[in-house]
Design brief:
- A hairpin with a 4-residue loop joins β1 and β2.
- The protein is an alpha/beta fold and 527 residues long.
- The protein starts with a helix and ends with a strand.
- It has three domains: 187 residues, Rossmann fold; 209 residues, Rossmann fold, CATH 3.40.50.12780; 111 residues, GMP Synthetase, Chain A, domain 3, CATH 3.30.300.
- The chain has 16 helices and 28 strands.
Amino acid sequence: MSADEIVLPYLLQTREREDPARPFLREVDGPPRSLGESGDAARLWAGALAALGVGRGDYVGSMMPTGIAAIELFFGINSLGAVEVPVHTEYRGTFLSHVLNTAGVKAVVIESRYLERLVDVAGDLPGLRTAIVVGSADLPAGLPFEVLGAADLLAAADPREPVDGLRPRDIASVLFTSGTTGASKGVLMPFAHLRASTEGAWPSALMTAEDTNYLVLPGYHISGKVAVDSMLLAGGQVAVRERFKTDEFWSDIDTTGATNACIMGAMAGFLMAAPERPDDAGHSLDKVLLLPLPDYLDEFRERFGVRVHTIYNQTEISCPIVSDGFTTGHYTSCGRLRDGYQVRIVDADDVEAPVGEVGELVVRADEPWTMMSGYIGMPEKTVESWRNQWLHTGDAFRRDADGNYYFVDRLKDVIRRRGENVSSVEVEIAVCTHEEVLECAAVPVASEWTEEEIMVCAVLKEGSALTEEELLAYLGPRMPRFMLPRFLEFVDELPKTPTQKIRKAGLRERGVGEKTWDSQAKSPGGV
């Protein structure tokens, strides 16, 4: 494929020339934006950023809620040949400064509701030159970087067409994914990687120009990226809601006429837990990308009258394992290997394991630039991940004799909660900043909504009278909401190996106990 079909600003330009009036983006409660209007917005952002000295290869932060503005900003950044660094909108403190500093962000576009968080870490951002504030806000002075209002900047900007010479290998975004032994890692994602991920998640054979993707997943996740790319490729539309809400989901589908949506496991659980309605299947939604597949898959499909497919993916790779079209029956596998990829299941020495045995899944792609180009600012982590010329996923898999692949567990210490990958190390670091906490361990425990909940077992310093509720209140303003542990338990000591490393396996196996405090139940026990 040519660059015009892979590089996003070129693809938007092509679609715009074909039919500039065709609707492309809409927020659920607003009018649709045409391809021409989105193209104009991208050109205006490109001109505004260029006037500030942003150019090809520069890294531009974007801390914006899920919506049209964030998508059009993404196109505008890429139009300059610059790289978008979308920032999780719940990041604050060291989480926020780590992302901006690791990526070397020189300018950040930030929605006004998040501005105070940027001000809080202003002294820890030596490379940041400019903050551009979207929305009304009193612009602070006296910071080590310039703060500008987006409205005035855009009003004075000269629109810029996409720069020439962008290639599929050029980096579109840096998406930060949770670290397992330290801070989060920034995945360098080329345009070709984004396209390959899109073709795995939403195969072009399944998409038409009549489709509308209902998007509630943010642009700092690959799921949010591929939804937009898939509809741009097919000539369809994207209907955007800032975040998922159970009681708005089906009314949003009715309002927008959405035909396809990506639903995370927890979201499916919330929908199934809602009271049944006589017209549960009376809607336009037809194609659902559901991951992971729940054990109530048959009931989900029957109740809501939808077809379901699934994938296995990580931000670093590009959907090497996919279901055979829409799944039928009780399908417990992640799927089968798709064309263009090689995978192996290996032991600790990278020796291939026999069929049926559990090992780590490692991946290669046949086409260049269709997986990550590395971790920004972390060359050692890049080499470790790509050792022996295979991308090591850190996930335990097995394969049956028929070529079906089954996810078994995570080899690395990541907790999967409500569609988010949470580093247990980062949770532990945050908890241990409390002056009365001696040490702690964060582990996953089963959730009634599928996926996992976070449990923290902590040892308090001698004489401490700290309560679980006080610890949770302390953590609230210091870490993203999705990282806040649901379960807390104060223990006399943590189980350890002979070398004094915390033995988390025992805590995971034990799970929630009688003395475990559940923040949702506000009482011991919990689940």
